[in-house]
Amino acid sequence: MKTTINKDHIYTLSQESYGIVPGVIKEMAERSAPLAYTYLVGTQTMELSSLTQLEINAIELRISALNKCESCMKGHTFLVKQAGLSDADAQAIAKNEETSIDRINTLLKAAEYIYYSGSGLYADMVLDFFEDEDLPEQVVFEIIGLISLKTISNYVNNYLASVKIKKRTVV
Predict the structure, then answer these.
(1) What are 103-156's pLDDT values in tens digits?
(2) In whole angstroms, how large is the CA radius of gyration of the chain?
(3) How confident is the model at residue 17 (pLDDT cuts 50, 70, 90)?
(4) In this structure, are residues 25 and 115 in contact, taking their beta carbons and an 8 Å threshold?
């Protein structure tokens, strides 16, 4: 039997988790409740990963920069600073530069390798990097999960920005 997922259910789950319903979840829920639910439950689940909140937000900031999602970049810049990262390090992440924290640099490089690995760009170096940096496979898979979820919200935000631009130019 299929479970019905609707906008109100998504809003309730979001309120329980975040205390608010973020704009991107509202936009998704208005258009596709299954997508909103997938994203919401996925992000809630990734909070249980072995990565710290700072590490999660740093990876999500880098992915948002790679996907050119200004909205998510602003949000994750705020969150990494709130978690104690310096402004210089937050800007370094957004600019694809190294931070002052080795562990963050390693995770960001891993995220970038994974992000580009499907294009064959870094295919040769990916496995060697993970072995050299002694990154457990669990962390690699958690980064894959973060990239997947962040790309959903980045693409939704970028799509909505395009729609707004098109409406402005038509009027």
Answers:
(1) 999 999 999 988 988 766 666 677 778 888 888 999 999 999 999 999 999 999
(2) 17
(3) confident
(4) no
Burial status of residue 162 (CB atoms within 10 A of its CB: 0-12, 13-18, 19 or more):
exposed
From residue 30, alpha-carbon distances to 7, 24, 69 in Å are: 7, 10, 20
Q: Is 25 exposed, middle or buried (0-12, 13-18, 19+ CB in 10 A)?
A: buried
Alpha-carbon distance 35 to 71, whole Å? Answer: 19
What CA–CA distance (Å, rounded) separates 13 from 21?
9
Alpha-carbon distance 77 to 35, whole Å? 25
HSE (side-chain half, CA atoms, 13 Å) at 6: 2
State pTM to two decimals: 0.89
d(CA 71, CA 74): 5
